[in-house]
Design brief:
Elements (H helix, E strand, L loop, with lengths): L3 E2 L5 E6 L13 H20 L3 E11 L8 E11 L3 E11 L9 E12 L12 E2 L3 H31 L1
Parallel strand pairs: 1-7
Antiparallel strand pairs: 2-4, 3-6, 4-5, 5-6
The protein binds coenzyme A.
Length: about 170
């Protein structure tokens, strides 16, 4: 399978937050941001995989600042790492305050998601390798490998502990 550069699948989605997006405190509900993150990451994964890909895991979702009604929120995503059938997609979420035009956007959240490319039967299928294009892409790939190692080790250790206690 021909490798694809990081830029081939990089995608952004933007959304103006409205009153239906709020929690009881009046700021934007975290689930609204998570939906935007999953949407943009899914678009990236399907572009990279050249077809259907499903969310297998979402971790490292960090909320850094509250988002308010009226804010223009941008989610930027790219493939950080690709394996045999899985990909890690990194997402950066920025918000532009509605009442202070021209100020630089604030980073409000980051997330890392694992997507798996699937065939017609829902079984994993191969994805192209990803080729980092900048030192920043290379750093993200190195860090994605560390996160993958931790994810799989944690999963295996938990499964092993269940087996040991049954
Ligand atoms: C994701 C899914 C296709 C994986 O199927 P599976 O039979 O577990 O597949 P495998 O064990 O062969 O793993 C496939 C790849 O996913 C990776 N993977 C699976 N679960 C993972 C997890 N929790 N964390 C990280 N990677 C994971 C594997 O490491 C493997 O990667 P590689 O091929 O790049 O080496 C399957 O679990 C599924 O369909 N889940 C539901 C997905 C879904 O519906 N999402 C939307 C939620 S509404």
């Amino acid at each position: 399978m021909d490798p694809k550069p990081t830029s081939a699948a990089r995608t952004s989605l933007s959304h103006i937050m409205t009153s239906v997006d709020t929690n009881l405190l009046g700021t934007v509900h975290g689930g609204v941001i998570m939906k935007l993150v999953d949407d943009v990451a899914g678009a990236v994964a399907q572009r990279h995989a050249g077809g259907p890909a499903v969310t297998a895991a979402m971790d490292g979702m960090t909320f850094l600042h509250p988002v308010r009604v009226g804010d223009l929120v941008h989610a930027h995503a790219q493939v950080n790492w690709a394996g045999r059938s899985s990909m890690e997609v990194g997402v950066r979420v920025l918000a532009e305050p509605w009442d202070r035009a021209g100020v630089p956007p604030t980073r409000v959240a980051t997330a890392y998601l694992v997507f798996v490319a699937v065939d017609d039967q829902g079984a994993p299928r191969s994805v192209p390798p990803v080729v980092p294009e900048t030192p920043e892409d290379e750093r993200r790939m190195r860090e994605a490998e560390i996160r993958r190692h931790h994810r799989l080790t944690r999963r295996d250790e938990i499964l092993a502990s269940r087996t040991a206690t049954h």
